[in-house]
Amino acid sequence: MYLRRASIADIARLQADPRGVPDFVFDDAAPDQDLVEFDKAWQALHFMLTGEAYEMGHALGIIAEETPMQSSDGIGSLEYSVVPPERMVTFDAALKALDDGTLAQRYDPAAMAAQDVYLADSFLNEGPEALEYILQGVPALRRFAASCADAGCGAIRVLA
User: Fold this and answer.
1) Model pLDDT for residues 114-128, shown as the tens digit of each residue
2) What is the pTM of this model?
């Protein structure tokens, strides 16, 4: 899963012609500022942020799907959605209010497995390495959220 910073103009252009989404997301991004990758840990991190596997209404729920975009890019395994700028501002404020220690305390692989969070069954046996894997993208996510909020940008979410 990826989040790519997008201005209001970028979002409007991509919604009008979604065929440009793959190039926009993967070819024009600047590391640590414009693009964040979560690998396969995205749903576990979402669970730790919101306490739910699929909750989208929570202030920290931007990792779950927002406004879906249709794409005819020929890559059927990618799903695109839009996180509006105002949601990024809300997310950034909520994320700033949640320190890393508190977030780490929310790690509960048994609860994740009960809600069918992707990879939760493997987390039950991996110990501290699993938590490190899930949290590896948090510093970049914090920078990304602040960058989006400061610039009045939203994001394009890509689930591969």
Assistant:
1) 999 999 999 988 888
2) 0.87
